[in-house]
Design brief:
single chain, about 280 residues, alpha/beta, TIM Barrel, 12 helices, about 35% helix, globular
C-alpha cells in the first residue's frame, strides 16, 4: 500500500496568507508563518507556498517568508510564483526551499524545464498546471491564477513537461478550487494514466471523505489542501489581520459563501485516513 502525502498549500499575497474561490476573490486569513508552523506541528508532510500575485510584478517575493519558515520547519518546502529563470530558482533554493514550482515561465519557454532539471535535478523541479474544462469536454492549461488561456491541452502539456525532465506535477482544477465540491477525478485520472511522475492533486476538497475517496481510487498518493485546513486552523491561531483590508474568514462563517466545506484539523484528517487503512507518514 502506498504512503500518501498531505501538503498544505499556502497562497501568499504580500505579507498575508490569502484564500479565494476558483483562484480569485482573495481574502486575507493571517500570517503565512503562523499557519506553516501550525501545520508542521500537526503532521504536514510538506508545505507548498505560492506567491499568487508574482506574475503581476515579474518576481517572487516570498524569500523572507521562506527563510524564516525554513529555520523553524524541517519538512520539504515547495515555492512557486514568478519563477522565470535559472537564477530565480537558485535564489529560491538558497532561501531554504527544497523544490520550485513553475507555471507561466514553463508555458512561455518549455526549455526552462529541461535546463532547470539538468542544473538542479529533476526532483527539484515541479510544474504547476491550472486546468479548466472547456464546453467541448477538453481540459486546457491556464496561467495567472486561471485568468490567462494558453491554448495548450492539459494532457499533452503534462506529457511534454515530463519529457522535458519535470520531476512532479501539481494539477489544479480551477473549476473546483475553493468550492469544496470534491476533486475532479476525471482530470486527475486522465493525467495519472498517461504520465509516470508523481502528481499532487489540488482543488475541491470539501470534506475528509473527499480526500479519502481520492486516495481510495488509487490514482495519486499526494494532495495539496487549502480551505479545508485553513478554516479549521484559524480557530486555533491568534489572528493579526486588518479586518477592514480585504475581508477575512468571517465571510466563510457568515454562511454567505455557500461553500460545501467541512473544515478539519490536519492531525484529525490523518487519524481518519489511518482508520480507513490509508497510510500517512
Amino acid at each position: 500500500m502506498k504512503t500518501v502525502r498531505i501538503i498544505p498549500r499556502l497562497d501568499v499575497k504580500g505579507p498575508n496568507l490569502v484564500k479565494g474561490i476558483h483562484l480569485e476573490g482573495l481574502r486575507v486569513l493571517g500570517r503565512p508563518s503562523d499557519f506553516a508552523k501550525y501545520y508542521y506541528d500537526n503532521g504536514a508532510d510538506e508545505l507548498l507556498f505560492m506567491d499568487v500575485v508574482a506574475s503581476l510584478y515579474d518576481r517572487n517575493s516570498l524569500h523572507s517568508i521562506i527563510e524564516d519558515t525554513a529555520k523553524k520547519i524541517f519538512i520539504p518546502i515547495t515555492v512557486g510564483g514568478g519563477v522565470r529563470s535559472l537564477e530565480d530558482i537558485k535564489s529560491i533554493l538558497r532561501a531554504g526551499a527544497d523544490k520550485v514550482s513553475i507555471n507561466t515561465a514553463a508555458i512561455k519557454n518549455p526549455e526552462l524545464i529541461r535546463d532547470a532539471s539538468r542544473e538542479f535535478g529533476s526532483s527539484t523541479i515541479v510544474v504547476a498546471i491550472e486546468a479548466i474544462k472547456d464546453k467541448n469536454g477538453k481540459y486546457y492549461a491556464f496561467t495567472d491564477n486561471g485568468r490567462e488561456f494558453t491554448g495548450k491541452e492539459v494532457l499533452e502539456w503534462a506529457k511534454k513537461v515530463e519529457e522535458l525532465g519535470c520531476g512532479e506535477l501539481i494539477i489544479t482544477s480551477v473549476d473546483k478550487e475553493g468550492t469544496g465540491k470534491g476533486f475532479d477525478i476525471d482530470l486527475i485520472k486522465m493525467i495519472a494514466d498517461n504520465v509516470s511522475i508523481p502528481i499532487i492533486a489540488h482543488g475541491g476538497a470539501g470534506s475528509k471523505e473527499d480526500i479519502e475517496n481520492l486516495f481510495d481510487n488509487n490514482i495519486v498518493d499526494s494532495v495539496a489542501l487549502a480551505s479545508i485546513l485553513h478554516y479549521d486552523a484559524i480557530k486555533h491561531l491568534k489572528m493579526n489581520v486588518n479586518q477592514n483590508e480585504e475581508g477575512n474568514f468571517d465571510f466563510i462563517n457568515s454562511g454567505k459563501s455557500k461553500l460545501q466545506l467541512s473544515p478539519i484539523c490536519l492531525s484529525d484528517l490523518k487519524l481518519h485516513l489511518h482508520s480507513k487503512e490509508i497510510n500517512c507518514r
